[in-house]
Amino acid sequence: MKIDNSLPLEYSTGQNQINILGFWIFIGAEIMLFGTLFAAYFTLVDRTGNGPTGADIFEIAPLLIETFVLLTSSFTIGLAIHAMRLGKQKAMMTFFGITLLLGLVFLSVEIFEFNHFYHVGAGLQTSAFTAILLTTLGTHGAHVTFGLFWGLSIVLQVRKRGLTPETANKSFIFSLYWHFLDVVWIFIFSFIYLKGLM
Amino acid sequence: MDYFDRFAVPHPSPAIYVSMVAIGLTVIAIIAGLTYFKKWGYLWREWLTTVDHKRIGIMYLISALLMLFRGGADAIMMRAQLAVPENTLLDAQHYNEIFTTHGIVMIIFMAMPFIMAFMNFVVPLQIGARDVAFPRLNALSFWLFFMGAMLLNISFVVGGSPDAGWTSYFPLAGNEFSESVGTNYYMLALQIAGLGTLMTGINFITTILKMRAPGMTLMKMPMFTWSALVTNAIIVFAFPVLTVALLMGTMDRLFATNFFTTANGGMDMLWANFFWVWGHPEVYILILPAFGIYSEIISTFSRRNLYGYKSMVGSMVIISLLSFLVWTHHFFTMGQGALTNSIFSITTMAIAVPTGVKIFNWLFTLWKGKIVITTPMLYSLLFIPIFTIGGVTGVMLGMSAADYQYHNTMFLVAHFHMVIIPGVVFAMLAALHYYWPKMFGFKLNEKIGKVGAWVISMSTLLAFMPMFFSGLDGQARRMYTYSESTGFGFLNMLSFIGAIGFAIGFCLIVYNIYYSTRYASRDISSDPWDARSLEWATHSPVPEYNFAITPQVNSAEAFWDAKKHGHELFTGEYEKIHMPNNSGVPFIMGCIFFAWGFSFIFGMWIPVIISTIGIFACMALRSFEKDHGRYISVNEIKKTETSRGA
Ligand code: HEM
Ligand SMILES: [Cu+2]
Transmembrane stretches, by residue range (chain A) (predicted)? Predict the structure, then answer.
């Protein structure tokens, strides 16, 4: 393995650079995935059948908590990567941990919110609108859930193996993933919730 | 026993019971054979756990040929049923199931792996790389495709085949009108195979962008590699659409949601739109690599460099963009109004322009070339006129007003077979003959090969030209019979004879493989066709590390320059080579995906949960594992190279 020390650790081997490019292309595919979900959402948003509309069921409080928590976690994962580049493993791990905790909070609030939807009569089977709403949110939520486990496994690896080109690469790629989920959430926040609340 | 009732076939027939027995016997025979010849270890070590792009390519190739057989059997049954009016060989239900599985198998499980086979085998060689960017992911892609294919293929003996057409339009494909688990098979099998394809897309774009030999700029890549790059870009952007559509379809069927139903706000046309937003790019995913193959073959056997390299690349890029802008032409008649139809008519016809550019480039390559007629070249030469018939009728279909007459008739069926068969199938058969010596170290017999090419191409014409006429006369597609008075009998009989001819052609190819394996000379050069690109610069069969020394490239035809103009491809000393380790995880993950899909199809939630956990466990295993690959030492390289006569 050739290590190029003029580059940040996560870019320092050929395989590392390949991994990062591959992941960017994967994000391209993810954009199409969420793009399709949004297209479906916009198509079905007014097709509420006998069920409620967005304005009937959206709640401000959980929405603000989710948004605040997730945006902050995007910031902290940025700090984690910054610390990693400075070689400060401990600080990195702390920020990584905070990120995952915030992710967990986000997820808990989302579960609470789903529960609320269900209780106000917006179940998966109620109408085309509720189905696409829950599917879009659920797909994002499933990504966050996956991210939590993934992030946890990276934290464990960094703890055991230290900051190597490999673990640094994984952490960096994880941060891309996490920022991406944040971007998706911004779209969900603006085009699903805000537009729905108006 | 009630539990097992769900696995019963809803519309049994003696033929299905016979197939069950046949499948059972084949499985037993395979297991017994492997045990008797003590081949389990070999199978596991050399194939099931391999991450070598060449072996994965060969496995794709074998799967594609098997699926061609399965899809072909479906085709023969359909044509036999329609050969005479009011035939009763098949009833309506069975006919529905057969045209559905025929379409799915041919597009997703025959044409796709055929393309994947050559992409896998050829692209890393053409760019002078050791393997793809993510060899393990590549193995996983293969196993996901394979398990998806197996899942769909068992449907007709376990629980019932899908029967709503390969397009699976809702509401027909919803629970109300498709009660059996058949359409669940469709949703899950395509989902699993589609995930594999998506990963291939990511893998190959990365490979092509990052792993080219020194000196090979983008505009010096061989044309097949270019076509692979563009194709994989289409895959990455088109397949997620299918993923979402299938997810929504699955939820409609298994969780009673209302995406595509006609109640509670559901919208059936949304499926049709999503399906074709993926589906039209999909046909270009099939055709572009085929174009790439033709470019390689035509320039090799005209002994000339490809005419209009830049316009070839440009037209592929334009096709890839346009392919996302034409999907509505598949349902002009389903009510979106004149303005929309007109716009999509124009984009559709526009696609014929870059396609035409490519055809003329091939013709100009042939012009004044020293043409050598070999089997691959014969397929390529037959492709040009037959494909043009398909393309021109495509433009006819693209005129929305006229499409009201053609839509859902045999005219449409004739169109897409006349593009897909000469376009994709001929290309893949040409590639089979062309790359066979590189894969296995001996050539397929040219005489049998050429007879096969003629039989197959003439049968294609015989089978599909009559459909243009019966279609214009009003014979609808997907109808299991027609009355005597329609007068369609004669034309359909011709089609039947053509289909039989095609089957004979297929048998000739299989026979050729058998014959050449036994009798062909093993003493051939590593460059038997006097070809032009890097894959011919290494030994046949290719050593596992592909190239002992990484080649230096200075033109789009590096190997040709090396042969004719004294360019040095391999400079420098042997160095130890880093290779990835084999791994059983992709195969095991594939098996778990199979179990996951199967239990999902039948709504057996506990196994679904267990296998979901299994899938994630495999991923975790991969994440924690320390696998840095292994090195092939200089001594070993020297030994291999001398034994190959370098
Ligand atoms: C010159 C380029 C082409 C044009 C203008 C064109 C146009 C069309 C149109 C308008 C239809 C829909 C007709 C209808 O449903 O009434 C159609 C169907 C189809 N085309 Fe093409 N096409 C072209 C090339 C191709 C190629 C290269 C392929 C495949 C390799 C292909 C595969 C198909 C398939 C599979 C269908 C039918 C799908 C179905 O309904 O089951 N076409 N084409
Ligand atoms: Cu199309």
Answer: 21-43, 63-81, 93-112, 132-156, 176-194
Query: What range defines the domain where residue A158 resides?
Result: 12-197
Reply yes or no: is the peptide bond before residue B541 cis, omega within 30 of 0: yes
Burial class of A20 by CB neighbour count within 10 A (0 to 12, 13 to 18, 19+) = middle
Q: CA A95 to CA B5: how far, in whole Å?
A: 54
Inside any domain, residue A1 = no
Count other C-beta atoms under 10 Å from residue B535's C-beta.
28
Q: Is the pLDDT of residue B604 over 90?
A: yes
Q: Is the pTM of this model over 0.90?
A: yes
What's the CA gap between B121 and B52, in Å, rounded?
A: 9
C-alpha distances (whole Å) from B642 to each of B93, B231, B539, B543, B548 are: 62, 38, 11, 12, 11
A128–B265 CB contact, under 8 Å: yes
Chain A residue whose CA is closest to B627: A166
Tell me: the pLDDT tens digits for B434-493? 999 999 999 999 999 999 999 999 999 999 999 999 999 999 999 999 999 999 999 999
* CATH number of the domain residue A83 falls in: 1.20.120.80
Kindly tell me if the per-residue pLDDT of B623 is higher than 70. yes
The answer to whether B134 contacts chain A (CB < 8 Å) is yes
Chain A residue numbers touching B195 (CB-CB < 8 A)? none
Q: What is the pLDDT of residue A179?
A: 97
Say if B225 falls within a structural domain. yes
Neighbours of B627 (CB within 10 A): 11
For residue B79, give its domain range.
1-302
Instruction: Assess A3–B contact: CB distance below 8 Å, yes or no.
Output: no
B201 and chain A: CB distance < 8 Å anywhere? yes
Residues of chain A with pLDDT below 50 are none
Of the candidates B488, B517, B541, which is a domain's last residue? B541
